[in-house]
Amino acid sequence: MRIWFELTNSPHINMFAAMIRDLEREHEVIITCRPLANTIDLLDLHGFKYEVVGQHYGGKLSAKLFGFPVRVWQLCRFLAGKRVDVAISQSSFHSPVVARLMGIPSIYMNDNEHAMGNIPAFICAKRIMVPEFLSMEKLRKQWANPRKVLPYPGVKEGLYLWELDQRLAQAVRPPRDPAARKKVYLRPEPWTAQYYKGSRNFLDELVLGLKDQVDVVLLPRGKEQGVHYQDARFGGVQVVTTALDIADIAPDCDLFIGAGGTMTREMAVLGVPTISVYQDELLDVDQHLLQQNAFLHRPQLTAAQALDYLQRAAQQPPNRGLLEKGKQAYALVKQTLLNRAA
């Protein structure tokens, strides 16, 4: 089979990396992407062959609406003559539309019920795969046909973290110096996301309050955000300008502070002490993890509160229930893919 993966944002690389390697043993895999956040850096880090198609059109809705048909056309042109058998994507609104236009059965996966792009994707996809707890009522509001919907067990992050957890358990790492300063990883808000309505740069005071007490590693969501935190007043903060593998972050992190998004949930599932400072309405997936006490939600977090929590919190074992569900979800997604979204 010839399988098309459309990977349009950084989290999609980790999500599908193990499955791509698994499928490449017997099938041909085509990967397309766009230059957003660390997507291309992560593809290079994993050693995948890919094609950059189109661009990201920023945070303005008008620009996104203009760019959507442009990239659909660009993808159709790239895939013409490649005889793709089945397509799969997570939150790529373009992929199901392109697949429908080209007569390719497609799987569309999403766990963000606030994304407007779900509407064309739900309409055009042959199969819609979402976490088991996402309400059918919310899916219907975005024109999802219930007959297309195939829920998978657990959360999206479990799909790949079960495999990462096995690798981390086998890895041999040098012991950390007990006298070393604690290390806090911080992931700011998604500036360019259509669904995000919260404020920008609201973490500045938190970063300034932490940087002299702990080692702060900041993981920007793109070059512009990285430049902001490279200003002289943030001296001492390590701003990561290249891709970091989650396998390197998780064992090194004493506290993760994230303004929502996949990385915040990844750390929580892996048992890393995690605080979400997301300013907007929480997604259903975040509410689900909150009910399991996987992380704290503190939108108005101060440096003093973060440092207090850091002193009290301890690394927990990974959430075995979610990892086991993730393994089941992986098998379900793979089988659905090999069945050509049937």
Automatic annotation (TrEMBL):
Pfam families: DUF354 (PF04007). SUPFAM superfamilies: UDP-Glycosyltransferase/glycogen phosphorylase. The lineage of its organism: Bacteria, Pseudomonadati, Pseudomonadota, Betaproteobacteria, Burkholderiales. This is DUF354 domain-containing protein.
